[in-house]
Amino acid sequence: MMRAWILPMLLVLCGSxxxxxxxxxGSPGTAAALMLLFLAFAGMNxxxxxxxxxxxxxxxxxxxxxxxxxxxxxxxxxxxMRLRVRLGRGARQVHWVNIWRDxxxxxxxxxxNDGNETVPTVVVAGRPxxxxxxxxxxxxxxxxx
Length: 145
Known about the structure:
There is one protein chain. The chain is α+β, with helices and mostly antiparallel strands. It folds into two domains: 2-44; 56-141, Glutaredoxin (3-Layer(aba) Sandwich). The protein is built from six helices and four strands; from the N terminus they run H-H-H-E-H-E-H-E-E-H. A four-stranded mixed β-sheet has the order 2-1-3-4. Helix 4 links the parallel strand 1 and strand 2. Helix 1 runs antiparallel to helix 2 (28-44) and helix 4 packs across helix 6 (134-141). It starts with 5 loop residues before the first helix and ends with a helix. It holds the Pfam family Glutaredoxin. Residues 126-145 are annotated as: Disordered.
């Protein structure tokens, strides 16, 4: 769990160092703006933005029972963040698998993408879809789907 916080903490520390330097040079406004930017990047890369990840086998089992999509993702992926943000509250209905924490999940992604770990890879009804449109994924969550 601690590894997931390394990048966000590094961003906060770097932002603090840059802001301190700018304040010492007499640019507090620029320092505040950059610090907010670093904090935003840290928040987007933190484990807080993604729902809790589960293992690939558990996600596939749950998906078979409830029919919900499985999203294979990794921290720092801008396309994964875009999908998460665009899904909004619906993101909690999806089963999330962090491929950096689950070797079985990484294997599923490589099998679906010609050996590449291209994420997000969304599996719906057993069929993988690489970097699908977030609106399409949201449609898969609707009760009529």
